[in-house]
Amino acid sequence: MDMPEEIKQFKITLVGNTQVGKTNLFSRFVQGKLPKVIYPTIGVEYALKQYQLSHNQQINLQLWDTAGQERYRQIILQHLKKAKGVYLVYDITKKATFDQLEEWLDNIRQLTDPDVAIMIVGNKLDKVVDNYELREVQLEQAKNFADLHNLTFMEISVYSDEDVEKCLTKMVEEICNTSQICQK
Length: 184
What we know:
The chain is an alpha/beta fold. The protein has helices spanning about 20-30, 75-80, 95-100, 100-110, 125-130, 140-150, 165-180, and strands spanning about 10-15, 45-50, 60-65, 85-90, 115-125, 150-155. InterPro entries: Rab_GTPases_membrane_traffic (IPR050209), Small_GTP-bd (IPR005225), Small_GTPase (IPR001806).
């Protein structure tokens, strides 16, 4: 009798400044919808999501939503350890959140393994569709930052659900490619 194959599991952490949309992104990943009421995350929140790879392998994603407030920074940084993937989220309508990416990236690289998959995610694309003046971080500026640091980059809208599933799929593919933990 064949034994069932062990389900692979890996940790993905969401980090970034406060109010960039990490909790909404977390909710879209886990529940497929936005939360009815949004409260600032205190410390961290955790959920497990089953994910089916294209070759029918089942994996479990441990998703960790972290607070963005400075007072929780040390707690947040501890949750980077053993992460196979990190979403570094900023708000495209608030340049200050983009300006903090370098500091976040330094922390991530100090506390994670060298093969961790890091994705820069510009959120709130929906806000600039009809009012481009609200955009404070230009697409080229973000692409250049990602290229400079050899990172994957996407812009999404958690509110309208634009490219959220693609964002998750891209992260899983990158983790599978870099860590060799997924079968092909």
